[in-house]
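Figure 3 (text version): structure tokens given as input.
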């Protein structure tokens, strides 16, 4: 094919619009330039981004909830370079390994909740969840239970966007037009206490209602057909929803009663985000499998893992006795350079006690959010845990009525924040804006985030008509 002779004359922004396939983007409008110029990031330090056009932006989202250690950590870059010079790649199939991957596995297991046995490595949360599903199916085949294959997830959940991980996700826009969900996947309600139908119900009562719904679903399907339940310790992209008091205790009682595995998605909550190394430890969750990614390397390189318990490992060994080799894996399983990035990242998290900082500054931030935004009439709920937090915007605080969807109030606030030099996320379902800064964030930086956010919210509020 002949090269377009005009292409060398394009600006980088124009070239982006012509050739780059952006995820979660209106492709036609972007390519036509209707969404403005792309935001091309040239560098970053701490929690600040430096854009190609000269602007500096405060990133209150840690990338996509992943840059836990903050940007510009030379120790991680140095570890990546050193490992690439020593051993850039070798595969982990058929008993091969690298020292750095073995050391990382041992280190992660020591940080993980008790009872975990081994880690299957991948590259991102989606493939970790695909691995979980395959392990659950394989284990039940090994135990002679071929019908026990259904996976129960929750509405509003986000577990990735590959075919099965996307099916587990409970957000309609990720299903529409892609023929999802596929496979034996069911969904039950999210623990969305603010939106509970019976507003007189307290947290314990609401937790019991959630557990009863799960119990009814398993009974209706038949416990001999349900393999696993998957959930985040605290729901993130689905609304930043802390579990109501008693939720995890009651959910686990139901799962044990029906011999259903518990697959815990710690892609976001792992490695300090909630103020502990794992959200499972904070919420008293006894998992069969735990997925990890994002904060494992702080996003410096892609790496993910599926941590399996002693119980599941015994099932896998039974499968080996019956079936021979475990025929699952990827080219880049336990990639040595990615493992080196994770080791250096964990060094920083431990040395600077960033999980502890997340607990302390997260509690302070939530308190300040409530103090500064609690009296604004379009702010319905302010919630969070550790360094995950959100504000839910409503048309009527008394009735909790939502704004009409076409107003896109959450997205308006996100855009207004960008004009204030602040990057925040408007979540997919409802007018919810979310915050997940790097775990190294300081109170002074959080105060700056609040100042910028307040200006953005007030600008959007002023632009809404009384009828809205």
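Below: residues designed for each position.
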């Amino acid at each position: 094919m002949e090269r377009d002779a005009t292409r060398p004359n394009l600006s980088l922004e124009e070239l982006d619009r012509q050739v780059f396939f952006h995820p979660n983007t209106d492709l036609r409008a972007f390519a036509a330039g209707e969404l403005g110029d792309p935001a091309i990031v040239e560098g970053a330090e701490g929690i600040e981004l430096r854009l190609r056009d000269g602007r500096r932006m405060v990133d209150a989202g840690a990338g996509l909830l992943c840059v836990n250690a903050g940007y510009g950590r030379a120790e991680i870059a140095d570890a990546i370079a050193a490992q690439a010079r020593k051993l850039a790649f070798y595969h982990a199939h058929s008993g091969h390994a690298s020292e750095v991957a073995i050391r990382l596995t041992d280190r992660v297991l020591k940080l993980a909740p008790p009872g975990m046995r081994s880690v299957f490595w991948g590259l991102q949360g989606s493939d970790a969840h695909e691995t979980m599903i395959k392990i659950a199916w394989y284990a039940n085949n090994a135990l002679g239970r071929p019908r026990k294959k259904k996976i129960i997830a929750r509405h509003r959940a986000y577990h990735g966007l590959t075919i099965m991980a996307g099916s587990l996700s409970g957000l309609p826009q990720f299903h529409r037009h892609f023929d999802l969900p596929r496979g034996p996947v069911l969904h039950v309600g999210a623990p969305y206490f603010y939106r509970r139908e019976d507003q007189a119900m307290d947290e314990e009562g609401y937790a019991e209602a959630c557990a009863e719904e799960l119990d009814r679903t398993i009974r209706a399907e038949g416990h001999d057909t349900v393999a696993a339940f998957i959930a985040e310790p605290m729901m993130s992209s689905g609304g930043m929803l802390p579990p109501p008091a008693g939720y995890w205790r009651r959910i686990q009682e139901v799962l044990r009663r029906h011999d259903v595995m518990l697959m815990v998605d710690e892609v976001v909550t792992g490695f300090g985000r909630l103020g502990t190394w794992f959200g499972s430890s904070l919420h008293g969750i006894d998992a069969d499998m735990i997925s990890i990614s994002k904060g494992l390397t702080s996003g410096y390189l892609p790496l993910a893992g599926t941590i399996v318990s002693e119980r599941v490992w015994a099932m896998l060994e039974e499968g080996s006795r019956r079936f021979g080799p475990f025929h699952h894996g990827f080219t880049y399983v336990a990639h040595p350079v990615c493992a080196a990035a994770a080791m250096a990242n964990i060094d920083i998290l431990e040395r600077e006690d960033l999980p502890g900082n997340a607990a302390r500054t997260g509690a302070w931030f939530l308190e300040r959010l409530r103090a500064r935004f609690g009296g604004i009439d379009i702010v319905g709920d302010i919630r969070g845990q550790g360094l995950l937090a959100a504000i839910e915007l409503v048309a009527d605080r008394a009735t909790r009525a939502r704004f009409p969807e076409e107003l896109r109030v959450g997205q308006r606030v996100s855009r207004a924040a960008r004009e204030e030099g602040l990057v925040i996320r408007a979540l997919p379902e409802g007018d919810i804006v979310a915050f997940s800064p790097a775990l190294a964030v300081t109170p002074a930086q959080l105060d700056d985030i609040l100042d910028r956010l307040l200006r953005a919210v007030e600008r959007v509020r002023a632009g809404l008509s009384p009828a809205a």
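The longest strand covers residues 116-122.
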